[in-house]
Amino acid sequence: MSRNKELISKIGLRLDGRRANELRRIRCKLGVFTQPDGSAYLEQGLTKVLAAVYGPHQVRGGRSKAQHDNAIVNCIYPACVNAATLALIDAGIPIKEYVCACTASLANNDIPMLDISHQEEIIGGPTLTVAALPMSGKIVLMEMSQRFHLDHLQKVLDKALQGCRDIKQILDEAVRLHVRDVGCSTGWASTS
Amino acid sequence: MPQKIYIRLASHRVNTSVAVNQRYPKIFTPGEVITSQNEFMRGHGTYEENGALKSSVAGVREQVNNLISVRPLKSRYNGEVGDVVVGRITEVQQKRWKVDTNSRLDSLLLLSSVNLPGGELRRRSVEDEHMMRQYLQEGDLISAEVQSVYSDGSLSLHTRSLRYGKVVPKQDRETISRIRNCILALTQSKMMLYDTSILYAYEESLKYSVAELLIPEAMVDVALLTQQRLCMLEIA
Fold this sequence. Notes:
By secondary structure, chain A is α+β, with helices and mostly antiparallel strands. Helices cover about 30% and strands about 25% of the residues of chain A.
């Protein structure tokens, strides 16, 4: 755990110059493709994700597989969850609220830090990944890469949820901007 | 003849937005509370949680008496009776075809709602059922009219007119492609598609060749000229 100590320097900066509770830069754009029903591009630090939504459409091949009120989205990185949320919103598919994912870890065995970069993940300690509904505070998924002491869990979890709320703010702003832009161009006319 | 190829950097991308109107209505995003009073009924795009009416899509609010709904800017095609649609046959079944019309569920074209070749009106016999694939097979493109909407939202189509039926894309192909490219130009700039806008775009596009209409600058040019003519129309 000695290497762990260097994750946050004495003046409180991390390896990439962020503070403990700072997210990586998020840039996103909706409606990047024309062919799918919905699409989104999201950059979170150096992670770049493109997501596309096709549907809803008739179940192809075997009606027995049809599920009427749920869908499964597989994601590898937390940023993928955020991109998938944006793409679903762009497709006009009803969802309860934003689903945001964020990671948090423990630096210097004491300080919780937010949004772990790949570099920090390699040299650092345990990483907690949380996907949540930020408005109601419900947790959709929680995953850990290693064990750490139970006493630390609450503060790391709180930090990750705070990150989810911050990400939701950023995504919400992007959605509003996109809807406004498209709406002004179409004259807010009915498209359905 | 070698074709000219245009390649550009992402940083030189053309901004396709023609948003001019600065005033906009309130926008709701998923999870946002629309109202906490419970005298309202929930419509499409909304749900109820803890006594509050919340939005489930990103869009603008619409209210009819007590019914509140949120309309997303983009969604799959919701058909209405009388619409003329172009669809692709996906499946041949007994006495009916399944047609993909880009709506949530596949549409149906009943054997009894097509004009059989030869033009005679008679009962559909077993032979007709066997001949269905000869008439329309998987992958064929058809134009049809919406006859009725089922309770689950899927559409029933009919082609009981000489205007409808299998689309034959041989004649006037250049005109078709030009209109297609004009529509692409308009949609790229997020402009509304209707007869006048497409007609104007078509007229403004005549100074370009059909292939040139795929260049982003030309597309924005056509969209802008169309936008201006539409504005003129509104003033006059």
